[in-house]
């Protein structure tokens, strides 16, 4: 089963969900704005993505929210994680994880295809 972190107001999230339905795969929705990830969950996703927190940050949303982002370095990594957990709008979306652990930020057809194929 694929888990999808989404914001229903996001067009990329709606597209990803439509692709999952069209592919006929089982999936579970997590509305991450209503149920933000924990630091541990975010760490787990980042490890599977092979990325750092700042790599999946929505910096435009940070500016809109008046949030000053920390430096993009290892010394501030924990600050990034806490900031993203406290302000989940900063997390790029949608994030999809297949049962085999394949995880993608599903903003493009190739990423969506990769996670669907893994299922």
UniProtKB/TrEMBL annotation:
The EC number(s) this enzyme carries: 1.20.4.1
Domain of life, per lineage: Bacteria
GO molecular function: arsenate reductase (glutaredoxin) activity
Keywords, sorted A to Z: Oxidoreductase
Gene3D superfamilies according to UniProt: Glutaredoxin
Sequence similarity: Belongs to the ArsC family.
Protein name (database record): Arsenate reductase
Organism expressing this protein natively: Nocardioides kongjuensis
Species classification: Bacteria, Bacillati, Actinomycetota, Actinomycetes, Propionibacteriales
